Amino acid sequence: MTEPSTTRAWMRPHDWAEVVLGVVAVLSFLWVDTDNTAMWTMIVLGALIALDGLLSLAMPGLVYGEGVQIVLGALLFIAPWVLTYTAMNGAAWSSWIIGGLTLVIGAAALPVANAEHGRMAGQH
Fold first, then answer.
1. 45-76 burial by CB neighbour count: b if 16+ within 10 A, else e?
2. pLDDT digits 0-9 by tens, 31-66
3. Which of 4, 21, 110, 119 is disulfide-compatible with 66, CB 3.0–4.6 A?
4. Three-state secondary structure string covering 2-65
5. Are 83 and 35 in contact (CB under 8 A)?
6. pLDDT per residue of the chain (124 residues) written in tens, 0 to 9
7. How far apart are CA 54 and CA 56, in angstroms?
């Protein structure tokens, strides 16, 4: 019996989406106006989002990866208010959109990761 494509390493589309969103966040300072706080917030959180996506791609049975993704997405989403860069429209909207998408994709991927974790646990 072959594995579904979503359970094999490097094959889960939602994890690839997470990597892309993280890279876009990291590079967004190149096309939007930012200050030092907004730029480094987006670089650090974007890099963590991309790294979490890569880890989830490499190890599809790790359930905590999607939980981390949800937390990182929420942090990026609230960052413009907490770190007071809402006046910078490009940076703020980038944070809200990328953070919101990261959060939603993580929540959608959680059942897939839970199911894969259950299948892997049953094989031992």
1. bbebbbebbbbbbeebbbbebbebbbebbebb
2. 999 999 999 999 999 999 999 999 988 887 777 888
3. 110
4. CCCCCCCCCCCHHHHHHHHHHHHHHHHHHCCCCCHHHHHHHHHHHHHHHHHHHHHHHCCCCCHH
5. no
6. 444 445 566 778 888 999 999 999 999 999 999 999 999 999 999 999 999 999 988 887 777 888 899 999 999 999 999 999 999 999 999 999 999 999 999 898 877 666 665 555 555 4
7. 5
